[in-house]
Specification:
heterodimer, A: about 425 residues, alpha/beta, FAD/NAD(P)-binding domain, D-Amino Acid Oxidase, Chain A, domain 2, 8-stranded mixed β-sheet, 12 helices, about 30% helix, B: about 110 residues, alpha+beta, Folate-binding fold, two-stranded antiparallel sheet, 2 helices, SoxB (chain A), FAD/NAD-bd_sf (chain A), cytoplasm (chain A), FAD (chain A)
């Protein structure tokens, strides 16, 4: 792999940029791999990357039915934070956030991590108490957050209206090292690093069946032929239920559409990420100047990667009170992704009833921030059969009633 | 946007008039059932990529619950029917079988 550097750019500038190589090989499937990861999104690629980097397992294929990073990795609002309430969540999300800090250097690929600060607005008294509780919990967990006053919110976000008649800003949970990153670059950077370690990233290769023998996984059938493996990792987000159905078991998961939209590009006006969970609107400004807006999920199961129009209307309507200037913006485009939501809004990183098959799913509406931490933990789980980061995230926790309840903690009107 | 017909009051409206209530025909087992069965009832979901049977409530209308059969891949609504039933009516199942090759109704575990 040729390293990217300032020197490389200068060198290529001298020869009409003819010396750049493909970032990753266009691999063809081999008959057998040690590990197959299904899903070449951020989480799947990160899992493969840390399998290679931390455990030396490089005979790995990453299968993708569409194109690399074309699922939720390319459809999110790129928010990175770790201000969760429960200890297991804080551990994995903070691990993830801290890995983002050095990801560009680790991968030699600029993922444009921008720890610009993130505020979750408290717009009801219930939220004020909830976020103060989270701030205290974060202090104990070693996650740096603070509860800030409305005046401080206004100072950080001059375009905000803190005296809204319906939902005034009563404070905010501020994480100074939260922020955003370039979502596609995260997938591309991992893919390049995986390919460089000798792994095969195979696109347009849909898994059509999971083959098992005596309760143990032996391989998968794909649209490009059967492939054998010793271990199988399912990292397919919204399609997890579908994949596990092939393997013969069910998950405590429902797939729903989550939408986002961006405005026309405007001059820089907001250099933090703001989340308003009561009204279900999130906003940040991209480097191109577009206001990136995320909304709520539809209430019904959906695999179509498009959502209901009225949800966009509700999201923007709610944001206009808090950000009056939004009313003057034209919206440029809108898209939807299929998110896999669990009962307690926490992910599943787990062994499954099929021996040798592992599942990493249930990240729901907040998967992007978790990509490196999720990959790190999933790789450890797959390589060693156990990881301190995933112990609490078993798919059997529902049976035991050991929820990691972030739906109440988020205070989001689900 | 989904267009649903409430089988209780007969009104046809778009989805903002209704509220989705999750998977239909979940079986709640009685006394003597196992922990597995209770977990199934509370958490495990079919979540199919295709034909889905679900509960809806006509919240901004007659307020009644009913069932709908819908495709999660095309968003086509195959039909709606009364909530007071343990499985979809036969004519609806036949309609879906005709439209979706290979689909058959199966008992939820």
């Amino acid at each position: 792999m040729k390293r990217y550097s300032a020197f490389a750019i200068a060198r290529e500038a001298m020869r009409h940029h003819t010396g750049w190589n493909r970032a990753w090989r266009d691999a063809q499937p081999k008959p057998k791999y040690d590990v197959i990861i299904v899903g070449a999104g951020g989480h799947g690629l990160a899992t493969a990357y840390y399998l290679g980097k931390n455990f030396g397992i490089t005979n790995v294929a990453i299968l993708e039915k569409g194109w690399l990073g074309g699922g939720n990795t390319g459809r999110n609002t790129t928010i990175i934070r770790s201000n969760y309430l429960q200890d297991p969540s804080a551990a994995i999300y903070e691990k993830s956030r801290s890995l983002y800090e050095t990801m560009s250097q680790d991968l030699n690929y600029n993922v444009m991590f921008s720890p610009r600060g993130l505020i979750m607005l408290a717009q009801t008294h219930h939220e004020v108490r909830g976020y103060q509780r989270t701030a205290h919990a974060n202090a104990l967990q070693g996650v740096s957050t603070e509860f800030i006053s409305p005046e401080r919110v206004k100072e950080l976000v001059p375009i905000i209206n803190i005296d809204g008649p319906r939902y005034p800003v009563l404070g905010g949970l501020y994480q100074a090292r939260g922020g955003t990153a370039r979502h596609d670059a995260v997938a591309w950077g991992y893919a390049r690093a995986c390919s460089d370690m000798g792994m095969d990233v195979i696109q347009q290769c849909e898994v059509t069946a999971v083959r098992t023998e005596g309760g143990k996984v032996t391989g998968v059938d794909t649209t490009r032929g059967p492939i054998n493996c010793d271990k199988l990792g399912g990292v397919v987000a919204g399609h997890s239920g579908h994949l596990c159905d092939m393997a013969g078991f069910r998950l405590p998961i429902e797939s729903v559409a989550l939408q986002a939209l961006v405005s026309e590009p405007i001059k820089p006006c907001m250099d933090v990420v703001v989340m308003a969970n009561t009204v279900h609107g999130y906003m940040s400004q991209s480097d191109k100047g577009e206001m990136v807006i995320g909304g709520g999920t539809d209430g019904y199961n959906n695999y179509t990667q498009r959502g209901s129009f009225h949800h966009i209307e509700e999201t923007v309507r709610a944001l206009i009170e808090t950000f009056p200037m939004v009313s003057r913006l034209k919206m440029l485009r809108q898209w939807g992704g299929i998110v896999d939501v669990t009962g307690d809004r926490s992910p599943i990183l787990s062994k499954t009833p099929v021996e040798g098959m592992f599942i990493n799913c249930g990240w729901g509406t907040g998967g992007f921030k978790a990509i490196p931490g999720s990959g790190w933990a999933m790789a450890e789980l797959m390589a060693k059969g156990q990881s301190p980061l995933t112990d609490e995230f078993s798919m059997h926790r529902f049976r035991e009633g050991k929820f990691i309840d972030e739906s109440v903690a988020a205070g989001v009107a689900h | 946007m989904l267009i649903l017909t409430c089988p209780c009051c007969g009104v046809t409206g778009e989805e903002t008039e209704f509220h989705a209530g999750g998977e239909a025909h979940l079986k709640r087992h009685g006394p003597g059932s196992t922990a597995d069965q209770f977990e199934e009832y509370l958490f495990m979901r079919e979540n199919p990529k295709g034909v889905h049977f679900e509960r809806w409530r006509h919240v901004y209308g007659c307020g009644k619950w009913f069932h709908a059969a819908r495709s999660t891949t095309t968003l086509e609504v195959y039909g709606t029917y009364a909530a007071q039933t343990h499985e979809p009516p036969k004519d609806l199942r036949d309609t879906i079988s005709k439209k979706v090759p290979g689909w058959t109704w199966r008992e939820f575990q």
